[in-house]
Amino acid sequence: MGEPGASGSRAERKERTRRAILDAALALAADSSLGAISLRQVAKQVGVVPTAFYRHFGSLELLGLALVDESFRSLRLMLLDGWRHAPEYRDVIDGSLPIVAQHVRENRTHYAFIARERTAGSPRIREAINHEIELITRELATDIARSGAAEHYSSTDIALLADLVVSFVVTMAERLVDDPDAEAQTLDQARTQLRMLLVGALNWRSREPL
């Protein structure tokens, strides 16, 4: 068996096969985890020999890392753009939550993969997911500090606030994956919870030096 897609340039065929491998892994791991499937299963699903798999990914774990990167890349860009046009805390909430909901809707298999692998994945994949979440948290903390919205916060407390917000968003995304039909209710609850949290945040004064 050759690689799928006989037409087009070599680069185009290679990209189509790579995409097919990623999609096959997502489909096969839908009811379990990446660690429960085999390289041969993925190759068979795509219609290629195992050696063709290795031309794209050195192992299933490397394939999983590629899926983690793919899952977070566009989300981070969308959130950053939203945050940098949000002058107040409420704007951060009202802008971020619909962005995440839309992204989950359009990339549900990726989010289901992330939700599973965050707890059941290999140590390396779990570390990669946590690293991506930490990046989003640090980027939010930087934007909060630059906006002046937390002028009475120490840098430590700004980081804690960003971590709380991102933790809420991650939990909301997992709920959207588990119950897509309840999206409106999930968004409404998350919005209320974050606003409750920020009522305290707006009146917070750090005890340590700013």
TrEMBL record:
<keyword id="KW-0804">Transcription</keyword>
<dbReference type="Pfam" id="PF00440">
    <property type="entry name" value="TetR_N"/>
</dbReference>
<dbReference type="InterPro" id="IPR001647">
    <property type="entry name" value="HTH_TetR"/>
</dbReference>
<dbReference type="Pfam" id="PF21943">
    <property type="entry name" value="TetR_C_46"/>
</dbReference>
<dbReference type="InterPro" id="IPR054129">
    <property type="entry name" value="DesT_TetR_C"/>
</dbReference>
<protein>
    <submittedName>
        <fullName>TetR family transcriptional regulator</fullName>
    </submittedName>
</protein>
<feature type="DNA-binding region" description="H-T-H motif">
    <location>
        <begin position="38"/>
        <end position="57"/>
    </location>
</feature>
<dbReference type="InterPro" id="IPR009057">
    <property type="entry name" value="Homeodomain-like_sf"/>
</dbReference>
<keyword id="KW-0805">Transcription regulation</keyword>
<feature type="domain" description="HTH tetR-type">
    <location>
        <begin position="15"/>
        <end position="75"/>
    </location>
</feature>
<dbReference type="InterPro" id="IPR050692">
    <property type="entry name" value="HTH_transcr_repressor_FabR"/>
</dbReference>
<keyword id="KW-0238">DNA-binding</keyword>
